[in-house]
């Protein structure tokens, strides 16, 4: 989805909330909404998708009396910036975008780079942790004592003399979760006769 197409989509979303939308080339700021009177005015020259998404978030949250334009310390403004980035990212992903195309996301939406990077990175970290937790649970079910035994036998077959074993190194070598430490340690002790 290109920049203009994205702008049109966001403006239609604003209209779905019953707002009258007016474009004005001479309007002194990119966009503003009045949630009480259900009016949005934007500069057809200066507006960006990020600014329309920001105002759309104010509409969704029914924010009013937000203070001055660019009032970054106002909680409603900070929330609108954060949620606008998430909204735009959701649209971006739905249209085939991903983290590897982050620069294209910023170029298309005109979202503030540092803020967008922080918000999206945090989202990916949370997503990665959730996926890792799910996969670890599945691995726990799938790795049996016999499989662990086979992995360890294979691992120790590479050594002529074994003085010490680093269990974490073994787990990393076989791409196993560190949650298997106790299971692996017991098996090593049994195989090496140190139990």
Offer a quick outline of the entry.
The chain has 195 residues and is mainly alpha-helical.
Notes on the structure:
It is a single chain. The protein has 195 residues and is mainly alpha-helical. The chain has two domains: 3-131, 2-Layer Sandwich (Zincin-like), CATH 3.30.2010; 143-192. The chain has helices spanning 3-16, 49-60, 75-94, 102-109, 113-142, 145-156, 167-173, 181-192; strands at 20-23, 31-34, 39-42. It has a three-stranded mixed beta sheet, covered by helices on one side.
Separation of the first and last Cα atoms: 62 Å
Percent helix range: 55-70%
| Strands, total number | 3
Specify the structural class: mainly alpha
Question: What's the rounded overall pLDDT mean?
Answer: 85
Rg, please? 27 Å
- Can you tell me the number of structural domains? 2
CATH architecture type of the largest domain: 2-Layer Sandwich
Range of strand content: 5-15%
Pick out the low-confidence regions.
Answer: none
